[in-house]
Amino acid sequence: MVLSKPLVNFLSFYFGQLFEHPLRTKAITCSIIATAGNYTSQKLSGEKVINHHSLLAYGLYGLIFGGSIPHYFYSFLERAISEDASFAVVRKLLLERLIYLPLYQAFTLYVLARMEGKSHNAAMKQLQDLYWVLLSSSWKYLTVIHLLNLSVVPPVLRVLVTNLMGFFWTIYLANKRRQQQAKSKRSK
């Protein structure tokens, strides 16, 4: 019971902030989750020295884009497809998986590479190397979770759930990028 009071206080504060300042709260939450995901992936991959530039890139990406773009997308989705519409959840899922995800995935890969200090050509090469693998993996492994997110989770919490999925996806993405970089170094 002692541990539950701080947790309840934190959740009360968080939901209050989410209600009063949704965009800011989602941006800060995404920044924290993205940074934590990148840090975790670096530790799990056995990095001896933490790449602080990468941590900063993920944190800034989360703060600037990772909370805001999904916030506006899910707000649009709620307005565009009424809950009363026939097959509303399926229509939302198809829109999210077939239009939003491919665009957002490409944007994320490119912008993260640029924020990490890579040149345009290096960012495009990384985008070309990773895009299809990550997109098809997302379709394969995360579609059911997104279906549940759209059908069970209240709209105000969808970005949070997406960010929590993003924590694990960041680990997956960072490991794929490291594998691609190691493969590039071996082929040189």
TrEMBL record:
<feature type="transmembrane region" description="Helical">
    <location>
        <begin position="94"/>
        <end position="112"/>
    </location>
</feature>
<dbReference type="Pfam" id="PF04117">
    <property type="entry name" value="Mpv17_PMP22"/>
</dbReference>
<keyword id="KW-1133">Transmembrane helix</keyword>
<feature type="transmembrane region" description="Helical">
    <location>
        <begin position="55"/>
        <end position="74"/>
    </location>
</feature>
<keyword id="KW-0812">Transmembrane</keyword>
<keyword id="KW-0472">Membrane</keyword>
<dbReference type="InterPro" id="IPR007248">
    <property type="entry name" value="Mpv17_PMP22"/>
</dbReference>
<comment type="similarity">
    <text>Belongs to the peroxisomal membrane protein PXMP2/4 family.</text>
</comment>
<dbReference type="GO" id="GO:0005778">
    <property type="term" value="C:peroxisomal membrane"/>
</dbReference>
<feature type="transmembrane region" description="Helical">
    <location>
        <begin position="156"/>
        <end position="175"/>
    </location>
</feature>
<protein>
    <recommendedName>
        <fullName>Peroxisomal membrane protein 2</fullName>
    </recommendedName>
</protein>
